[in-house]
Amino acid sequence: MEEVDFDAMEEEMEMDGDLEDGELAELKSLSHFARLDTMVTVVDALNVYDVLSSLETLAEKNIAGMVGNDEEKDDRSIAQLMLDQIEFANVILLSKVDLVKDKNALQEIRALLQKLNPAAKVIVPSKPYFADVPLSDLINTHMFDMDKAESSAGWMQELAKAASEAGHTPETEEYNISSMVFRSHERPFHPGRLATVLAGFGSYESGIAAGQRDDGHAEANVFSGVVRAKGHLWVASANARPIDLHVAGRHVQLGASEMPFLAAVPKEEWEDAFHEYHRELMSAGSWHASHGDRGSMVVFIGVGLDKAGIEAELGTALLTDAEMAEGEASWEALDDPFFAGEYFENHEHLEEPKFVILEE
């Protein structure tokens, strides 16, 4: 096959003075020279739970450069990287299947992968070294579509359903794999109590493994089994901006959203798009008379989820009636272990949104 000299092409295009910057970027796109056919992710069935429960970062594994980041310090966790690859794939191929002796555990893994990416084709080979996997399942499938790939993650679909259907309940469990959506639009989280609750992530284990324990006691941590959690939080000390929550196994990250709550923007500063968004919220009954569009919504995906326990545990971190009665002005004085109250009000001078990674 003839090789393509991309560097020579780039030099030739840059010498063409008639090209605008945008046109040059478009021409330099790889899609003009080759078609991305299929995104295939290989998942180690024997060690998938070990990876999900790992807190190691790419820098600690010394593999940052292998995934396109030349920075000396790369704080992305290997669990996060693995989930990103699973959620973006067209095909998920399980490896080392022959080494997994418990077939129920294998079905649990398959169901978990399908829940994380409902649009993907999950292949579980029956022979070692993928001997029985047809090449037609991997090559020249024409499956890749960037727009679809960017919205294929299971958590995205659950949040979209929850936003459009107030009474949406995630689908029936398969092999103990399920999801749930937590909502709270009446009151925000207390930052200190939320920090305590979020510290509960970190005891992930397979539902199969939990069922095989001989101690006869259920795991005390209600977040045991949560593999993925994504969404946004309304935190009292960050009253102006949604706080994005990202959970990948034991890795918990919080970050201020780039956009403030609409209710935190003075109405005289609203652009046409803001007015349209407000009308949509009003029509859907999603605009609170006092709090506007402020609220929390998070989807949890995992193995053997204690849905009632998760709901109750998060509920303990919400402001109490007494704290609500003190009014919004009092919330600024709350100790904020995440962002030190930086997002209590919406300021134009705020720098790029910060994020924090919770440590055990």
UniProtKB/TrEMBL annotation:
<dbReference type="Pfam" id="PF02492">
    <property type="entry name" value="cobW"/>
</dbReference>
<dbReference type="Pfam" id="PF07683">
    <property type="entry name" value="CobW_C"/>
</dbReference>
<comment type="similarity">
    <text>Belongs to the SIMIBI class G3E GTPase family. ZNG1 subfamily.</text>
</comment>
<dbReference type="GO" id="GO:0016787">
    <property type="term" value="F:hydrolase activity"/>
</dbReference>
<keyword id="KW-0378">Hydrolase</keyword>
<dbReference type="InterPro" id="IPR027417">
    <property type="entry name" value="P-loop_NTPase"/>
</dbReference>
<dbReference type="InterPro" id="IPR051927">
    <property type="entry name" value="Zn_Chap_cDPG_Synth"/>
</dbReference>
<dbReference type="InterPro" id="IPR036627">
    <property type="entry name" value="CobW-likC_sf"/>
</dbReference>
<feature type="domain" description="CobW C-terminal">
    <location>
        <begin position="177"/>
        <end position="318"/>
    </location>
</feature>
<keyword id="KW-0547">Nucleotide-binding</keyword>
<dbReference type="InterPro" id="IPR011629">
    <property type="entry name" value="CobW-like_C"/>
</dbReference>
<protein>
    <submittedName>
        <fullName>YciC protein</fullName>
    </submittedName>
</protein>
<keyword id="KW-0143">Chaperone</keyword>
<dbReference type="InterPro" id="IPR003495">
    <property type="entry name" value="CobW/HypB/UreG_nucleotide-bd"/>
</dbReference>
<dbReference type="GO" id="GO:0000166">
    <property type="term" value="F:nucleotide binding"/>
</dbReference>
